[in-house]
Design brief:
The chain is an alpha/beta fold. It has one domain: 3-Layer(aba) Sandwich (Rossmann fold). 44% of the residues lie in helices and 11% in strands. β3, α7 and β4 form a beta-alpha-beta unit. The two termini are 26 Å apart.
Amino acid sequence: MSNGKPGFDPSLLTRPAPERLQHFRSYVAKHKRLTDLDKQITAALDEPAGASFMFVVGPTGIGKSTVRDVIFRRVMNQAMAEMQTDPGYIPIAGIEVIASGHKSYNWHDHWTRALETIEEPLIKHKSLPRRSKIDRLTSGARLREQTAALRRSFEIGARQRRLRTFTLDEAQHLTHVPATLLRYQLETVKSVANLSKALHVLFGTYELLLLRNERPIRSTRCYCPF
């Protein structure tokens, strides 16, 4: 430090080893590139300029989740007064994209988690109306119907909550599908972002570029910290 003082409470040196280790693990050091990235993303969130989703790409452990957490807290703090006036208002929410372990992505689980983050009630009871009383669906068709109902509920709920930003952490897991489905993954995110009116911010490793490169879209911004 330039003033000759340590950047922590010196009494920490006399504390038990687990406490010192916890301080080390929880300490966040500023890095110029991540600080610049934070400013760029914040500016993009304030003025999306027509973008429906954004990629933040970098190697594992570089600080993407840290940037996401900082932005999340800032948005919530800035909106606190309005949230107190309107308890239904949720300016930002997000999920961690779960690796399915199969050559497919579990969109049913995805929309369930997304609805939980915007505090949607009665998630287990979401369903689309049957076209006919005698309509009998197979288990696969029923699952697709339920998934479509969950997605629609998220789109409606996001608009009602006035959700501005939705983050997807570990978004590279969206690419763990056959190459022929990459286009579908990208178009799904784009469509939901448009219909929900919430800018989707995807944080992930360089695998995420498989989606970005699948179809370069004007409504996309991409930031690579390193």
